[in-house]
Design goal:
alpha+beta; two-stranded parallel ribbon; 8 strands; about 15% strand; transmembrane; membrane; transmembrane helix
């Protein structure tokens, strides 16, 4: 069977002319002209070689699917044959993944070793990976978080040393309590389901009554000014379900002297990646929400300061939520899915990479509702 200039199976112009001449002379049957449906399919495949541009931000999910389909079809065009068409119609991924190298890329990603613990701010964002769609079986596919640690294992403690007039043992206890707080606030299943984060609150010093009152208010009546998402990760089980039991975590923790003698601060900077699916039966589209938190907790010498032994003071906290509805302050994250209607504030500005941990939240953030380059 001949191939035309676009390397597709079929009769070229010169061959068609020869068959036409032979048919006129009675030398044989000329090939039939393709039907209207065949011409439509061929034209769609031809145009698929030039997929639409890759977009980020609010249109990212919509355009990503189109771009991926165009790219995958374009890679198949050079080997299409009659038998191949039937195979692709039934299981296109079997051939497409092999031809595009996606299958090998996926295997390489699965086999890649976990990243070493983060001990200093990275110099830039993680390298680009194949923007593969997550699935129920592989919810972190196509994400740099695939190589991150699972859950609490990603919160590794630095070696304890005496700091700010606090002993090595006191600092070690503060580091361990800070990890417990991060786990209770961002990984505990009850907290994630929207229940009161009792374990996290129990680690805070009751003598800091102002902070306790503010947190209680945010949990009871979330609003713009007092949103529990600023400190706790929560979703509505009636809307979402966590895919599997793994949340990917990466970050670091360090200790520095407090503002005055007899005080020490524990600084924590961690990013959590949550894969979600709609709570409706049969839902299989996976979307990830990326939450980065910078939290400062402190301890103080009880001989100089009014403090409770073994408890932490919450000094400051910042959050950066990626892929969660803007201008919604009900205390839950709301990742966007393809079937969701387009409502609310439209993200704008230069897309930010939520996996970029090379700059602090306040230095890299933007006002209002920003857009993201990946999730």
């Amino acid at each position: 069977m001949g191939k035309n200039d676009e390397n597709r199976a079929g009769a070229g112009d010169e061959e068609w002319a020869r068959f036409t001449e032979r048919a006129a002379e009675g030398a044989g049957d000329a090939p039939k002209e393709p039907s209207a449906r065949q011409r439509m399919v061929t034209e769609r495949l031809r145009r698929a070689q030039d997929p639409p541009g890759w977009r980020t931000g609010p249109a990212w999910r919509e355009m990503e699917g189109r771009g991926r389909r165009g790219r995958r079809l374009g890679a198949v065009l050079g080997v299409v044959a009659i038998a191949g068409v039937a195979l692709i119609a039934v299981r296109p991924e079997l051939l497409i993944d092999r031809l595009t190298g996606t299958a090998q890329a996926r295997q390489d990603a699965r086999n890649a070793p976990p990243l070493a613990a983060e001990t200093a701010p990275p110099t830039g964002a993680p390298p680009a990976v194949d923007p593969d769609r997550p699935t129920l079986r592989e919810p972190f596919r196509g994400s740099p978080a695939l190589q991150w640690a699972d859950g609490a294992a990603g919160i590794e403690l630095p070696a304890a040393e005496a700091v700010g007039g606090m002993t090595k043992e006191q600092v070690a206890d503060a580091l361990e309590k800070t990890k417990q707080f991060l786990v209770a606030a961002n990984l505990d299943p009850a907290t994630l389901r929207g229940e009161r984060p009792k374990a996290a609150l129990a680690l805070l010093d009751p003598k800091d009554g102002e902070t306790a009152a503010l947190l209680d208010k945010s949990l009871a009546k979330p609003d713009r000014e007092q949103d529990p998402l600023n400190l706790f990760t929560r979703y509505d089980p009636a809307e979402l379900a966590l895919v599997g039991e793994v949340v990917k975590v990466r970050g670091r923790m360090w200790v520095e002297p407090g503002a005055q003698s007899g005080q020490a601060r524990v600084r924590a900077d961690y990013t959590f990646v949550y894969p979600f699916v709609k709570a409706a039966p049969g839902s299989d589209q996976v979307e990830r929400t990326v939450v980065r938190r910078e939290v400062t907790l402190s301890i103080a010498d009880r001989r100089k300061w009014e403090a409770t032994a073994g408890r932490l003071w919450l000094e400051s906290y910042r959050v950066d939520l990626a892929n969660s509805a803007c201008e919604v302050y009900d205390g839950y994250v709301h990742p966007a899915f393809d079937a969701d209607p387009v409502t609310g504030v439209t993200p704008s500005g230069t897309p930010e990479d939520p996996y970029d941990r090379s700059k602090s939240i306040d230095a890299g953030g933007q006002e209002g509702c920003g857009s993201v380059s990946r999730s």
